[in-house]
Amino acid sequence: MSDSCPDPAGSVGGFLCRAGQHLRAAAIENPRLEARLLLSTAMGVETTALLRDSRAPVPPEAARRFAEMLKRRLAHEPMGFVLGHQGFWTLDLAVSPATLIPRADSEAIVEAALQGPAPARVLDLGTGTGCLLLAVLSEHPAAFGIGVDLSPEAAALAAANARRNGLEERATFLAGSWAESLLGGFDLVLSNPPYIESAVIPGLMPEVALHEPARALDGGADGLDAYRLIVADLPRLLRPQGRAVLELGQGQAPAVSALARAVGLEVLGTHADLGGVDRALILRHP
To answer: Cross-referenced PROSITE patterns, in alphabetical order (predicted)?
Structure first.
């Protein structure tokens, strides 16, 4: 790769320019933005600080950290894992390979949940980082919530995220298989279950297929395995007039709605994400 960077190799501008070239060559989207995020994290400064003097030297220790982070990103490790955290809703959440990285699309589930009455008790099935539960609790200061994940590492991470965001007194997290150990009585049930068809997963972008946990992605042959289990349990878990908001894959609303109606739940509608995809299915216990 030819070096067309105007700033010296050891400077802020030099690091950003050369890193951007490498990221672009690796087919990373937004290479300049990602280079700034990596360097600002390595230096422990805000990204705006990098713009003040492009010829300022990068300290050796920061340069070493930056090189390690850049190597991981060039191997298509997700940016959230490289940085160690991810923004979601109004929260900053720690992430790890034990969980999916929270995505902006999933904020549609929070938006849909907030359209209904304020819940007192909230359940989040397959909680991962805790993003859905913690976002809803942050908007309902009188609510209490339980998050469940099959992975003990994920449940521990979600508990840490509750502490990180000052919500630990109103949230508890358990390791278990869906709601098997819970009795019910919830006003609101949230879930972002695995919903990708098994055969599709190897063809996903490498950040997802190679680095995020398969158990949190794989929804079985038709993508509906987890929905069958969750929806069948909702009448037991929900109070009368209680609601459930489930994240959907593209085009899954009709099939999951049919599962819900088959167990006597009302389908209140769907809520689209910013891309216009029906991302949240809203159900109610009649």
So the answer is: N6_MTASE (PS00092)
